[in-house]
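User: two proteins, same treatment. go.

Assistant:
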Amino acid sequence: MAPPLPGPLAHLAPLLTHYGYWAVGAVVLVEDFGVPAPGETILIAAGVYAGAGQLNVVAVAVIAFAAAVVGDNIGYLIGHTGGRAFVHRWGRYVFVTPERFRKAEEFFARHGGKIVVVARFVEGLRQVNGIIAGTSGMPWPRFLVFNALGAALWVGLWTSLAYLTGTHITAVYDEISRYQLYALIALGALVTALVLRHLLRHRHRD
C-alpha cells in the first residue's frame, strides 16, 4: 500500500497511484518548457513512493532525467525559432534594443553554462531556462551538455533525499528552502560580478 504523502505532496497521491511513471514523466516534461506544473513536487513524491516500494527508484530517476532534458530542449527550440524575432519586435517597448540584446547574447554565450546548471534548482528559472538559452543564441550542443548535467544533479538530489527520508522529506525540503534565499543572493552577486567584468572589458576594447 502506498504511504500517505505529507503536506503539499498529498494532492499528487491520486495522480501517482493511477499513472505512476507516466505521471512523473509528463509533469516534469511540461514544466520544463514553461507550462505551470509541479515538476519538482511530483519528483519528490515519486521518490517517497519508491522508498515505500511502490515504484522503482532507478526508473523514477531515469524517467525524470529524460523528461527534464527533453522538456528543456523543447523550450530551447521555442526560444531559438521564435524568441529572437519576438524580442526584436516588442523589446523596444521595455528598452531592450537590438544592440542590448546582442550584448546579452554574447554574455550568455560566455557564461550560460553556469546559469543553465544553477537554474535547474531555482523555481521560476527552471521553467524558462531552455527558452532563455534558445532566445539568447546559446549553441545547442553547449546547452545540451550543461542542461543534462543540471538535470542529473537535480534528479539525483531530490530522488535520493525523498527515497531515503520518506515521509520526512517535507521537513528536509523546508530546511533547504530556508537557505534558498541566501543561495539566490549569492547567485545574484555572481551574475552581477560577471556582468560588470563583461562591461569593463567591452569598455576597454572601445
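Protein 2:
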Amino acid sequence: MPLIPEEPQIHESAQGPRVTPAAGRTASTPRPVPGPRSAAAPRPGRPGPGPARPAPPAQRPHPTPGRPQPDRSENRSAPQVQLIPASAAGALDAADEAVDLLLDSGRAPGDILVLTTGEQHPWAAHELSFGETAYWAQHEAGDDVFFAGAAAADRVRTRPVVIVAVNGSDDFSGALTGARERAGALLIVCGDPQRINAVLGAGV
C-alpha cells in the first residue's frame, strides 16, 4: 500500500540508484509522528507488539514517489531501496513515521529493523540501560520493531524491512552496506538525498 506521497524515492538499477524529485516539487522535512515520545515508552507510537501477519504474495507494485511501501518485489536477491529526504536532526522522526506507516499498512512489527548512524534511538538507549543481555534478547525474540546503532549491524539478523536514520556520522557508507545486506525486501534510508546518493551511487 502506498505511503508518504510527498517524497521522492530511489530505485536500484544497473547504473546505481538515484533520486529524481517529482516535477515541480521540493523535498520537505517529514512531519513528526503525532504525540510526545518518552524514552521509557516501549516503542514510539506503539504500546507493544502486534500480531504476526503473513507476508503478502509476491508481485511488483506500482511505486508512489517517496512512500515506504510493504515490499512485494519478485527479486528477493536485492532489496528495493527508498529514500525519505530528511535533515540529520529530522532523520529519527522520519524513521519513526516510516515505522508507523508500515505498521498501519499491515507490516508485522517483527519485520522491521531500524538502524541509526549517529545517536542511539531513545528506545534503544532506554532498553540498553537495563543491560545488553535483556536488550539483545528482544532482538532474538523477533516479535517487535527493533532499534540499534549501525555499528551493531553485524550482530543483527536479517529482517524484511530495514530503515536507516542517517542522523550523524560523515562516513555512513559502511552502515548502508550492512543495512542493505540485512534487508530482505525493503531498505528505507532517511537522510540528506545528496549525501546518500553519493554513497549509493558509488556502488554501496
